[in-house]
Give the backbone structure.
Amino acid sequence: MSRWALLPVVAVVTLVWLGAPAWPQQLDDQLITLAFAHEWAAHGLPRWGTGSVVEACSSFLQLALAAGWIAIGGGDANLFVKVLGALAGLALVAFAALRVPRHAAGVLVLAALVTWEPLAWWTFAGMETTLSALLLTVGWVGVLHGGSDRGRLAVGPVAGLGALWLAATAHPEGNLHFALGAAILGVRGDARARRAVVVYALALAGWHALRVAYFGHLLPTPYLVKMAGNDPLGDQWGQWGLELVTLAGLGAVCLVAFPARPLALLPLLVQCALELRAEPDWMGHARHLVPGVCATVVAWTTDATPRPLGRRPILALLAVIGLAGLLEPPGVTHGGLEPRDARSLVSPARWFGAALDTTQLEDVVWIVESAPWNGSVLLEDVGMTGNIAGVDIVDLVGLTDREIALAWLGDEAVEARLRRRFALAPPSLVRRMRYGNDQWARDVPWMELPVPERATYPQGTALRYRLDPARPTDEQVAARWAALYARYPSQGPVAWHHALSEARQGRLVAAARIAATATRRFPTDPTLAALPASLFAPFELDTFADLPSATRQVSRPLPRAEAAGLALTVAVQPVSDEGQLVHVRWSCDAPEMTVVVHDTTTVPLPGWACAGADARLLVEALDDRPRRPLPREIYVGLTAR
């Protein structure tokens, strides 16, 4: 076996380890795509939940893949796009490992690529970033080296141009990559490559003709919001400059160890132009640069003969790679460079055993429990909220509402239409957001608003307005949580709220099953581990006698029919090495059941001896060892039998 044979495996394993902390993370923009995908799968048309036909997704390729997954009954599309992004990132690194020269310089460039924080982050954070990066990398390697490439995983020029064609559907700037690649093959390619250029160009033109015929516009609406209305000399230059600092390791290796290849810089230059034209990217982690960096680095080093490197240059390059890998580019929580959080890398496995986050959870809870059925809500963050049943979400930013996007660009005719539109059908709820004390909330110039209610969010202060006094019924609230859970069972907060809503409706067996499923699927998630006990959260809690003499937890009455399908989960804190004796009994006359609890124990409910339809359940810790204190706390949860 060659000493280089395990290089792709080592690279993939390292990327999994470094990227694991990003797995539970969610980004609201990703859930916009999934809301469109669910609408497409359900009704046969890619449109927003209000019925508006608008291209609010930057990646039509990912949208189509997600919609297809939903249509065939594939399950949670949230997990699907996460896995899709992860597979694309891992395939990209494996491809790079097979393309770099079998030389110390090749190992250095691969180490710099894998340890670069943005690549690890986007591999597992979701979005279409790594999918676009994989297509661009394969495409540019084929276009620039396909004519002479006979190495590992050789990509011909026609296949390379096909990958760039797919990249044009994965992200809009991919069209520019395709145009540049086609121009290069038109000049340098053979007759077969030139014929492929014509065929692919016609196919791409036909694709855009279909897009324009359906959506009515050439550019997706996010490009209006994030590019057309942005100052070309704005803050994005500062973010771009700091992101380039994190590329010191990759840049040093490519420039020092490999000969210059000017054409290989084209993919990076395209992505730099995109970032400098767009507004500062709130998602951070060098999102716009990742596809261009990967394509440039692999195209720069493919089939290259490295310069001879001595021990000192290698050690110096390793030091630069290590320092660059410790840096995290600007992101949503910080405006400058930050040190990478090494604590999150200690146990990668626990991240993959955790549930996915729910973005904008405060808004989701507020809308689910406050918005009248078939009402509408106007707010700025519409990804996860756009998946709520029985409510129309109107985008104050304009990503999913082209009229609002054009109004922010100063179109007076559109502004007049918006005033008439909201006068005829005002939203039920409005939310504006102040991100920090020194920033103003986005204005709503098309309607009069009442005095707001202020709510503290993790990212700032929310200004909430109620324009419609109607509220959903308890059953409608439960139905909304049930629909969200059916759509995204991998999101821990959604499972939590769905289980509690079922418990509040008296459906304890259903609630316990949801809790048991969540804790089984996500064994390392500390929040979901507490869910079975939290089903008792609405219950009355009483303490009898003086601690530590006796401790009891008293539930609300349990219906007889529900109790037949339930078991108890009992836990004590602190845990005793010898186990803690716990008595469980009904509040009516019934035999007492004694259980020895070691950490957490599941036991059947005691026999029902009451004449009535319901009874209270009492749990009591007993002290059979006088010199040992009773536990400070007893946790009682419900689980389905």
